[in-house]
Design a protein that fits this description.
It holds the Pfam family PP-binding. With 323 residues, the protein is of the alpha/beta class. The chain is built from eleven helices and five strands, in the order αββαααβαββαααααα. It folds into two domains: 202 residues, Chloramphenicol Acetyltransferase, CATH 3.30.559; 82 residues, Non-ribosomal Peptide Synthetase Peptidyl Carrier Protein, Chain A (Orthogonal Bundle).
Length: 323
């Protein structure tokens, strides 16, 4: 599942690029790994983490060459994309070098000395984005029990500052779904770009779950405007939405086609802040002025009204009456 977190973050990061993503793109992501690499920690109690650098490479907007070019990308499927993510993460793990040793090696490089980059900083990190994934088994909890040591209930103490330039933390909550938290340093990512990345992560996960192509995902998350109210759902809002859907499931199941179409038109009018009459013509959702992020907003509005709307249908079926 950590490969899903790495892949989704890699794709979502393309949404905050200044120019549309084309051609070969490499992004170095960080991943935590359990490892004691500091001298003197051998007999210390606790869990020690080091940073694994995982470079991911994909070629956007290009067709795979007939000559058997080994560069991943182009018209490749989701399977090929995640195969690349798995291969790169396993290769990084098998060739692991402690982060402090890697920095020391790079500091001795003539190019780095010339650029005066001897000290680690936000301006020149080995990676800018840390991606972590906690499985359901890990998050199920449990108290640490040691003979002769009194243990207390776990306290969730969140740090008040960013531990990395950007950190995306995925937590599998079991039946409660997947929780995604974004933490970033203000010096690196302003509020607007952070909002855009947050919304892109939500869309990427939704589209990956629907089996969308890489090119389709890129078309959705790039070149669009972020709505301030469209953010990742909180655990409480997820629970509220689930409770509401369970209450309305019976009425939604027997809803006629005409009633369903009417509810969708009402949601479209609310989403785009337009009179409902403007949604009765032959225009498509996009011709009415919608952008890609509006699709996620529309889906949430329909859910609140008791209608399950497939995100893929919004993008692939022009006629709103066929949704």
């Amino acid at each position: 599942m950590h490969q899903l977190a790495l892949g989704a973050t890699f794709l979502a990061l393309q949404s905050i690029q200044q120019h549309p993503t084309r051609g070969l793109v490499t992004v170095a992501l960080g991943a935590p790994m359990t490892m004691r690499t500091e001298v003197g920690t051998e007999d210390m109690l606790g869990m020690f983490l080091d940073r694994l650098v995982v470079p991911l490479t994909w070629e956007f907007g290009q067709h795979s060459s007939a000559g058997g070019d080994s560069t991943p990308g182009g018209s490749g499927s989701l399977g090929e994309f995640f195969e690349m993510v798995g291969d790169r993460s396993r290769a990084a793990l098998s060739h692991f070098v402690p982060h402090r040793v890697l920095r020391s090696i790079l500091r001795e490089s003539p190019q780095d000395l010339a650029a005066d980059r001897a000290e680690p900083s936000l301006a020149w990190p080995l990676f800018q984005v840390m991606v972590s994934f906690h499985t359901a088994v890990e998050t199920a909890g449990g108290r640490l029990r040691l003979d002769g040591v009194e243990t207390v209930e776990r306290e969730d103490a969140r740090p008040q500052c960013a531990k990395f330039p950007v950190m995306v933390e995925f937590t599998d909550k079991g039946d409660q779904g997947l929780k995604v938290e974004l933490e970033c340093a203000d010096e690196l990512l302003d509020e607007g770009r952070a909002d855009r990345l947050e919304n892109a992560l939500a869309l990427v996960l939704e589209l990956l779950g629907g089996g969308a192509s890489i090119e389709g995902i890129m078309r959705v998350i790039t070149g669009t405007t972020v709505n301030q109210g469209d953010r990742l759902p909180t655990p409480q809002s997820e629970r509220d939405s689930l409770d509401y859907k369970q209450e309305t499931k019976g009425s939604a199941g027997c809803m006629s086609h005409d009633c369903r179409s009417l509810v969708i038109k009402e949601a479209v009018a609310e989403c785009l802040d337009r009179p409902m009459e403007s949604s009765n013509g032959a225009e498509t959702f996009w011709e009415l002025g919608a952008n890609s992020m509006d699709a996620l907003v529309l889906q949430k509005l329909c859910e609140k009204k008791g209608v399950d709307l497939d995100l893929r249908a919004i993008f692939e079926t022009p006629d709103m009456t066929e949704w």
